[in-house]
Design a protein that fits this description.
Layout: H1 6-61
């Protein structure tokens, strides 16, 4: 096994410590980001559920029917568009 000089060992340790610190910071950032995205997702689900309930309520109370746009004389043919 090769021998390392003292300054090389110190640089290697410093590099490992720096990489570890950056890794810890990055892991913390990921945890915070995941937590925030989870909150946003939950809020979006609640909002969508509320909109769906409003839509269902509107569909229950909506009346369906036909309305005449203009007067139709008895001799005119009706052209139905399906």
């Amino acid at each position: 096994m090769s021998k390392l000089r003292k300054s090389s060992k110190q640089k290697l340790y410093a590099g490992c410590i720096g990489a570890g610190i950056v890794g810890i910071i990055f892991a913390g950032y990921l945890m915070v980001n995941i937590h925030q995205m989870d909150e946003v997702r939950k809020q979006a689900e609640v909002e969508a559920e509320q909109k769906w309930k409003v839509y269902e309520q509107e569909q229950r109370t909506a009346k369906k029917g036909w309305a005449v746009v203009r007067d139709i004389s008895p001799a005119n043919r009706l052209h139905l568009m399906i």
